[in-house]
Amino acid sequence: MDFGDIISSQQEINRLSNEVSRLESEVGHWRHIAQTSKAQGTDNSDQSEICKLQNIIKELKQNRSQE
After folding, report:
1. Domain count within the chain
2. Which helix (H) or strand (E) holds 24?
3. Arithmetic mean of pLDDT over the chain
4. Cα 39–Cα 42–Cα 44 angle in degrees, nearest 5
5. Could you give the count of Cα atoms lying within 13 Å of 53 in the half-sphere of its Cβ?
């Protein structure tokens, strides 16, 4: 390896280090959101509404594929 390869490798290491830091931060953010929503709980009526909407989406997809 020459000096140019070493510099290039170090730049790649730095870039990847920054990417890892960014992703760790993002994981922390989403973990916090998940824990907050879990602590608040999901209302049964919300669950029921979600199921209804999922069924409607499924029916619409089936209708679209038949047409």
Report:
1. 1
2. helix 3-40
3. 84
4. 145
5. 6
